[in-house]
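User: tokens in, sequence out, please.
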């Protein structure tokens, strides 16, 4: 982690900038307002975001990842099943982002610009990796990548529902999330059954091999 004074200031400003971006957009005005609320010289604060809106958004996403990590010490969810851990982590993430909801909507539009596509992909992967690690995943094989890809797709789809959710207690978002998680669980169960049965399924190659090399 970068520990230069400007990097430290960027992390300090990340959440307040996003909260001000709700009203001011991801512009210098939001940085100035955040700086004023923290007693920081606005001119110095602006130096922390030399690359503009995309850098402000990146700092915000990283700050949410860090806040999420702080919200789940290892013992907090150790007794849960993995699917329950992922569910709890995602719900907490939306809770942490609730103060910047409208800013997140505009952030998605900024990240969708051609020049920001790679940054958006890196941020999505970083967040998915953070959430899986919090859930206790230690996979290093192909599952490491497939799990994160699936979680990123679930998170993105649920995020879009969350942005328009006006239900009590974000009930619509949670219901949608539960359906997506249940769908993945059914797929994984079917895949496991298919994989297991494949080993017992008749194989033309094995049959031909026996004809050519009969057992002695």
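Assistant: Sequence out:
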């Amino acid at each position: 982690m970068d520990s230069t004074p400007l990097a430290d200031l960027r992390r300090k400003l990340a959440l307040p900038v996003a909260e001000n971006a709700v009203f001011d957009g991801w512009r210098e005005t939001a940085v100035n307002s955040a700086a004023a609320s923290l007693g920081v010289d606005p001119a110095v604060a602006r130096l922390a975001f030399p690359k503009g809106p995309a850098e402000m958004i990146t700092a915000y996403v990283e700050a949410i990842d860090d806040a999420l990590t702080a919200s789940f010490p290892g013992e907090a969810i150790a007794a849960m099943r993995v699917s329950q851990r992922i569910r709890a982590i995602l719900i907490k993430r939306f809770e942490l982002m609730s103060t910047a909801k409208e800013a997140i909507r505009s952030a998605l539009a900024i990240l969708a610009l051609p020049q920001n596509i790679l940054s958006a992909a890196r941020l999505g992967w970083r967040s998915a990796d953070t959430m899986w690690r919090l859930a206790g995943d230690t996979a290093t094989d192909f599952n490491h990548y497939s799990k994160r890809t699936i979680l990123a797709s679930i998170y993105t789809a649920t995020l879009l529902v969350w942005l328009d959710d006006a239900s009590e207690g974000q009930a619509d978002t949670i219901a949608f999330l539960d359906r997506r998680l249940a769908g993945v669980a059914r797929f994984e169960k079917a895949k496991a059954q298919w994989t297991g049965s494949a080993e017992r399924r008749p194989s033309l190659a094995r049959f031909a091999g026996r004809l050519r090399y009969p057992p002695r």
